[in-house]
Amino acid sequence: MNDDKKTKSKFKDTVDSIVVAFVIAMIIRAFFVQAYKIPSGSMLDTLLIGDHILVNKLAYAASGPKYKDIIVFEYPLDPSKDFIKRVIGVPGDTIRLDGKDVYRNGNLVKENYAKYTNSNGLSSFIDSRFYTERFVIPENKYFVMGDNRDSSFDGRYWGFVDKKMIKGKAFIIYWSWDNRDGINIRFDRILNLIH
Questions:
Q1: What 3-state DSSP class applies to 195?
Q2: Is it the case that residue 171 has pLDDT exceeding 80?
Q3: Angle, vertex CA 75, rays to CA 87 and CA 146, nearest 5
Q4: Does residue 85 carry a catalytic annotation?
Q5: Buried b (16+ CB within 10 A) or exposed e, 158-185
């Protein structure tokens, strides 16, 4: 009888521990950190298809995103989908796109992360007229673009991201694998910080 009580007590303690761990994990996910998987090549070579990342959900609790931050946000045309892009402009900035060049407030932006594969520098998604217009970013809005400029469906096409749609800042790759030809784990990418 005594052994039976000890077994029941151990079982109850185990169940209690699992429940507490689950509740803590849900609180962390709801308020602090969330995991995402990169499904497309719009952020190549910074983020690869099959990278699994963590996003800091509290990064912008006191302030908004800064230039070059990589953010996860609700896609403005369909909030049920999450997108990931790099911040190119913040509220009040004047942006001008000229071929492969981005000008922010009249200054050429140096973008060592940007990748172009089309010789004319125009994304297959974008009409060339968008590359000569200047626009000012409204209050509480952000202009974002993918690093793989010729294969990124981004702010050049659908406009701005509202601050309230931003879910957080991508900060680390916790797992990476390429499953197109079997399972190839990319160990060299695991635990890399995202910038």
A1: coil
A2: yes
A3: 40
A4: yes
A5: ebbbebebbbbbbbebebbbeeeeeeee
Could you tell me if 43 and 50 are in contact, meaning their C-beta atoms sit under 8 angstroms apart? no
Q: Rounded CA gap, 36 and 38, in Å?
A: 7
Active-site position among 57, 85, 141, 169? 85
pLDDT digits (tens, 9 = 90+) for 45-66: 999 999 999 999 999 999 999 9
Strands (E), the chain: 33-37, 51-56, 70-74, 82-89, 94-98, 101-104, 107-108, 134-136, 141-145, 161-162, 166-178, 184-185, 192-193
Distance CA 16, CA 21 (A): 9
With beta carbons less than 8 A apart as the criterion, state whether 144 and 86 touch.
yes
The number of residues in the chain equals: 195
Summarised one tens digit per residue, pLDDT across range 94-117 is 999 988 899 999 999 999 999 988
Which one of 8, 17, 40, 42 is the catalytic residue?
42
64 within 8 A of 91, measured Cβ to Cβ: yes
Q: What number is the average pLDDT over the span 7-14?
A: 70
Asked: is 35-193 a CATH 2.10.109.10 domain? The reply is yes
